[in-house]
């Protein structure tokens, strides 16, 4: 009962906030609606039993991807009025993308109706251990059977990191006001200060 | 299968949070609308900047280096979230899983070393 109510609540909120992503006039507000949509999708994932995916949605999508979107929106100097112009000109492209997405949804429903996905292989190497929790099942498959894909993900992340550095890091000249921490730590009072007892009437040599 | 009844307190808490935040947002609006006088005009609604008209759009451009920080954050966030299933499933994966994660960490460590050497971690 509560399960059903929660499902319809989360599903309605996902759809409503996804609509608001499109209809919000301000791109920053769009990103905020997107975050709400991610949260509700995480709720749906909990309902379907994929706890780890739900937590990942909150940590990675809400915590990192949404922030990245926000930075991109704020970094690009967009003239919102100009962006909205040319609606009729871009209409065919938009319709094409909408058709592709519709086809994907239809294909997805078709794939769903053919039955449950067979996890693992007949010899049992690809099956998750019985009775293990969600996160243990994911881990036991990801680091044995799908280890190659896991390492490939690492390579992709490396490429993303290096690409971001190459694209955004503007040439570093001699930095202004940079401190050399190890030199500061190596400095001792003996070499920095000097005790003198100057005679009266005479100066000291510096 | 996951025991969803564990999540019931979270759901209840979510409901309370929604009710409270809605009340906090709309109650002051409604009260001020009912008690105060509400006669907005163009001058009252214009933004106020020390008596001057606003110089420029309040939404300035961000420095591109924030983007670099965000990308690094995503990557190491993902790395950390891969560590959780690895840590709890080591009894099933054994040394293979351990080695796999070490290779993964080495790849990303390489990226971190590159980032550090390039000075992308320094703000300047």
Automatic annotation (TrEMBL), chain A:
InterPro entries: NADH_UbQ/plastoQ_OxRdtase_su6, Nuo/plastoQ_OxRdtase_6_NuoJ
UniProt catalytic activity: a quinone + NADH + 5 H(+)(in) = a quinol + NAD(+) + 4 H(+)(out)
Transmembrane region(s): 6-24, 31-50, 56-81, 93-112, 146-167
Keywords on record: Cell membrane, Membrane, NAD, Quinone, Transmembrane, Transmembrane helix
Membrane topology: Multi-pass membrane protein
Region listing for Disordered, in residue ranges: 173-206
EC top class named in words: translocase
Gene3D superfamilies from the UniProt entry: NADH-ubiquinone/plastoquinone oxidoreductase chain 6, subunit NuoJ
Coiled coil (UniProt feature): none
Record family assignment: Belongs to the complex I subunit 6 family.
Protein name per UniProt: NADH-quinone oxidoreductase subunit J
Provenance organism: Blastomonas marina
TrEMBL record, chain B:
EC annotation from Swiss-Prot or TrEMBL: 7.1.1.-
Domain of life of the native organism: Bacteria
Membrane topology type: Multi-pass membrane protein
Intracellular or extracellular location(s): Cell membrane; Membrane
Catalytic reaction list: a quinone + NADH + 5 H(+)(in) = a quinol + NAD(+) + 4 H(+)(out)
Transmembrane spans: 6-27, 66-89, 95-114
Main location: membrane
Alphabetical keyword list: Cell membrane, Membrane, NAD, Quinone, Translocase, Transmembrane, Transmembrane helix, Transport, Ubiquinone
Alphabetized Gene3D superfamilies for the sequence: NADH:ubiquinone/plastoquinone oxidoreductase, chain 3
Quaternary state and interactors: NDH-1 is composed of 14 different subunits. Subunits NuoA, H, J, K, L, M, N constitute the membrane sector of the complex.
Its biological purpose: NDH-1 shuttles electrons from NADH, via FMN and iron-sulfur (Fe-S) centers, to quinones in the respiratory chain. The immediate electron acceptor for the enzyme in this species is believed to be ubiquinone. Couples the redox reaction to proton translocation (for every two electrons transferred, four hydrogen ions are translocated across the cytoplasmic membrane), and thus conserves the redox energy in a proton gradient.
The family this protein is said to belong to: Belongs to the complex I subunit 3 family.
PANTHER family listed in its UniProt record: NADH-UBIQUINONE OXIDOREDUCTASE CHAIN 3
Protein name per the record: NADH-quinone oxidoreductase subunit A
Organism: Blastomonas marina
Name of encoding gene: nuoA
């Amino acid at each position: 009962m509560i399960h059903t109510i929660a499902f319809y609540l989360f599903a309605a909120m996902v759809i409503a906030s996804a609509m608001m992503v499109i209809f919000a006039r301000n791109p920053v507000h769009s990103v905020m609606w997107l975050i709400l949509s991610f949260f509700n999708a995480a709720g749906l994932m909990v309902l379907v039993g994929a706890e780890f995916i739900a937590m990942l949605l909150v940590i990675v999508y809400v915590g990192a991807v949404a922030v990245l979107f926000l930075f991109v929106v704020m970094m690009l100097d967009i003239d919102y009025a100009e962006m909205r112009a040319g609606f009729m000109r871009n209409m065919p492209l938009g319709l094409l993308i909408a058709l592709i997405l519709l086809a994907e949804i239809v294909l997805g429903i078709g794939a769903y109706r053919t039955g449950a996905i067979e996890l693992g292989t007949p010899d049992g190497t690809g099956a998750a251990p019985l009775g293990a929790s969600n996160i243990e099942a994911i881990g036991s498959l990801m680091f044995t059977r799908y280890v190659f894909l896991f390492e490939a993900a690492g390579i992709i992340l490396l490429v993303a990191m290096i690409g971001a550095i190459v694209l955004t890091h503007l040439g570093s000249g001699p930095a202004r006001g940079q401190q050399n921490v190890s030199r500061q730590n190596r400095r001792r009072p003996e070499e920095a200060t000097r005790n003198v007892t100057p005679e009266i009437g005479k100066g000291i040599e510096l | 299968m996951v025991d969803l009844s564990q999540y019931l307190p979270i759901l209840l808490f979510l409901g309370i949070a929604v009710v409270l935040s809605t009340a906090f947002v709309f109650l002051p609006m409604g009260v001020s609308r009912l008690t105060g006088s509400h006669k907005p005009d163009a001058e009252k609604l214009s933004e106020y900047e020390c008596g001057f008209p606003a110089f420029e759009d309040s939404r300035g451009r961000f420095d591109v280096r924030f983007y670099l920080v965000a990308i690094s954050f995503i990557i190491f966030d993902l790395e950390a979230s891969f560590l959780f299933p690895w840590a709890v499933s080591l009894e099933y994966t054994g040394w293979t899983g351990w080695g796999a994660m070490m290779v993964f960490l080495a790849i990303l460590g390489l990226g971190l070393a590159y980032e550090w050497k390039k000075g992308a971690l320094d703000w300047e």
